[in-house]
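Table S2 (text version). Query chain:
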Amino acid sequence: MNKTKKFSPEVRERAVRLVQEHRGEYPSLWAAVESIAPKIGCVPQTLLDWVKRQEIDSGVREGVTTAEAQRVKDLEREVKELRRANEILKLASAFFAQAELDRRLK
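Corresponding structure-token output:
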């Protein structure tokens, strides 16, 4: 069973800051990440993902920011709830319309 290790936001920020500060000392971003990741206690790919996410959020790299992604997720949730509410209202409307027709016939 593979356990995923959760890192606090402070640890993530510190790790990203370390990579950015020491990036010039290495021939590539990956080399810097590979050097710093074991010191933090994570795999290099995880640290690289954190660095890329920070670069996107700060506007250095192209992509969808964390805030934009969260906004889209919230809007999708709201649309889903509104569609569910509309479906309930349609069913209730049909039920009461049928009940009104049945009452008039008697």
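Notes on Table S2: The helical segments are 9-22, 29-40, 44-58, 66-105. The mean pLDDT is 91.
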